Amino acid sequence: MPTQAKKRLRRIMPIIPVIILLVIVSTFSLPVHYSSVNTSQLPPTGITWVTKPLQQVYNVIQNRFIGLIPGNYTEPSSSDYSTMSTILGLIDTGVSQNDAGSILSASNVATRLEYQLIPVNDSATGNKYYVLMENTTVNRGWGSYLFTAERSPSTTPVIIEAPHPVTDFNSQQIAYTIFTGAYPHVSTLLVSGVERTFGPNGETDMAHRTRSIFETAHEAFTKFGSVIIQIHGFDAILHPAEPLVVLSDGDGGINGALQAIASHLEAANLSIGIFDGFTHEKLGAQKNIQGRYARAFGAGFVHSEISSIVVYNATLLTQYENSLTQSILNNFGFPAYQIDIKIPIIALGIMSFFFVASYRFSKTRPD
Fold this sequence. Notes:
Layout: H1 3-12, H2 15-27, E1 50-52, H3 54-62, H4 78-96, H5 100-110, E2 115-122, E3 128-134, E4 144-148, E5 158-162, H6 171-181, E6 188-191, H7 213-221, E7 227-234, E8 245-248, H8 256-267, E9 272-274, H9 289-296, E10 300-307, H10 308-311, H11 314-329, H12 342-364
Parallel strand pairs: 1-2, 5-6, 5-7, 7-10, 8-9
Antiparallel strand pairs: 2-3, 3-4, 4-6, 8-10
């Protein structure tokens, strides 16, 4: 071997174990979590707040798709999607940067789509929210979107979603309860504006449409390191062998948020199952569009299927809602994955081997 090549090899070999160690450690460091900050960000000043119970406003939203007629749906145009993206971007800027101007601009642009952005001071709790909903004279099924006006930067960004209101056993109210109970640690609540079976060809199934206003909102707020929790429900009569709750990340894997939620549910004595690619396959959300997008952007996705046994039992339902809320308040216990002690031992062994080998190589080979 030429002298120069030998020297280069001796310089490279000590670096190899360091690279291996970094790869191993990085494998156990996702999802990303943020540094602790104890102070919450206050909402922008200069906004005119409407003081009333938030639940009252939410009831208006629910009345769009609860009743004898299961809502309505009108297909958005390309211009509608573009305008909604602008509105959502302004809201995100307004809240994250404490910018009243962006909130007011979002409110103005919303009128173009016959939406209204209502700053609500919840008289029941004193918490502040922004509610983006269609005007009361409009019902196109495009969905309603709620945002906390205050955000805690010390926690992982969390989004709660209800893509199948009514059809999935009151999932929209369950999502709302978790959203408000974890204030301000959940930034956003996305609620479809129509139940999933209104369209004959799946037009209103927002969890399986690649393009919808609901999906536009999902993409606007899904970021690397965030967590999306999607609330669903299944009929226990149709799935008698399933546990009370089935969790999935959509591809048979597991993430830290899902792991934490599972632990809290088990502590509440609720039977759970986790889709691993085979078991609980029918409830595994493998074709869920929001899940695919979240995973592609490095966000944690948790698809939660709740048995109708839980939904129609007040005690069990409260246990479920409290378990998810507590998981969020605890920031899912991030860092998400506990490192097995065997991992650093193996890594240390590999490093030692390479260091010894490089030392012996340098001594046994003349320059």
